[in-house]
């Protein structure tokens, strides 16, 4: 399914401008953040609602609803009241209600936002499996960076309605186009720098080789280095030196803030250095990402 926006407010599905198609004829369905289930209907009636509007045969409706409830792991729940279901089960009913109409595109508006962390992670896996088994396009809106990275084939990062970058999760994370993308997708150290020439940048008081080119001579740039790409070393062995200002245990690693020339570097490491310790830290050439500064209008 080819889905793209050519100009503002014009959307094309497989080359067809859907603006010219009445909303009720568009093969698109939506799953809302708040589920929007009908409380006076049971599970079967909720899922069958769209099929009944289409005036399909009763036997066809029963077959389609039964098949869809199996896909969302709710077989046998047909007669249950939706108010008796857990949040995760209600979300599955909402997904089944949308999918049973066989849309070509399914829009999901932060559908897992109301769930707790464990259930949200479980539902991420289930949604991905459902999408792959049905083979239809899911357009998934989320503010959760981890959710975007783990569930997507393609990510579109937007700021105030303007597309900042389109790419695979790996591309978006490893090669952000600007500081907004770098900060939005994962944690980042964003430092002011000067691109001296191709493959050479100055920041934090010294020059570093990098892999970037195509910038102007002595152009002001943003330098991005991910906290997990920084290695703690001895003071004398470090490319840079600093003082540990704070330490937070995050479970799989420690998050340390290390001050250097007025900038607090975020470092993620399994090695903990206590507050007040002077340390050296280094990073590889390929971990230095250079991007143009975005000027505020």
TrEMBL record:
PROSITE patterns, per database record: ABC_TRANSPORTER_1, ABC_TRANSPORTER_2
InterPro entries (alphabetical): ABC_SmlMolc_Importer, ABC_transporter-like_ATP-bd, ABC_transporter-like_CS, Mo/tungstate-bd_C_term_dom, P-loop_NTPase, Transp-assoc_OB_typ2
Cross-referenced SUPFAM superfamilies: MOP-like (SSF50331), P-loop containing nucleoside triphosphate hydrolases (SSF52540)
Residue stretches making up the ABC transporter domain: 1-185
UniProt keyword annotation of Kinase present: no
Highest taxon of source: Bacteria
Record-level GO cellular component terms: ATP-binding cassette (ABC) transporter complex
Keywords, in A-Z order: ATP-binding, Nucleotide-binding, Transport
One MF term in the entry's GO annotations: ATP hydrolysis activity
Descriptive protein name: Spermidine/putrescine transport system ATP-binding protein
